[in-house]
Design the sequence.
C-alpha cells in the first residue's frame, strides 16, 4: 500500500497538517524526541495522490512557515510554498 508521509516541525504543526488533510484520514505519529510525522494512505489511486499533494501545497503556502519534507514510496521531496 502506498503512503505519503510529511515530517512536521513540531506537534502543533503536525496537528494543523492533520486538520488540513482531514478528508484523507491522516495518522499522526512521533514525539518531541524523534519528531512528528503525518501519514496518509494513498491506496492505488493516482488521483488521490494528486488531491493530497494539492492540499499539502495549499497548506504549506497558506501557513508560510517554510517548506515541507514529504516521503512518497521511499523517496524524499521538499515542497515549497507556491
Sequence:
Amino acid at each position: 500500500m502506498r503512503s505519503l508521509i510529511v515530517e512536521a516541525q513540531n506537534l502543533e504543526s503536525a496537528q494543523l497538517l492533520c486538520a488540513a488533510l482531514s478528508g484523507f484520514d491522516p495518522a499522526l505519529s512521533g514525539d518531541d524526541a524523534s519528531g512528528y510525522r503525518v501519514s496518509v494512505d494513498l491506496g492505488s489511486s493516482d488521483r488521490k495522490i494528486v488531491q493530497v499533494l494539492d492540499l499539502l501545497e495549499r497548506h504549506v503556502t497558506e501557513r508560510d512557515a517554510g517548506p515541507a519534507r514529504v516521503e512518497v514510496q521511499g523517496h524524499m521531496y521538499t515542497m515549497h510554498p507556491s
About this structure: The beta strands are 2-8, 27-31, 35-43, 68-72, 75-79. DSSP finds two helices and five strands in the chain.
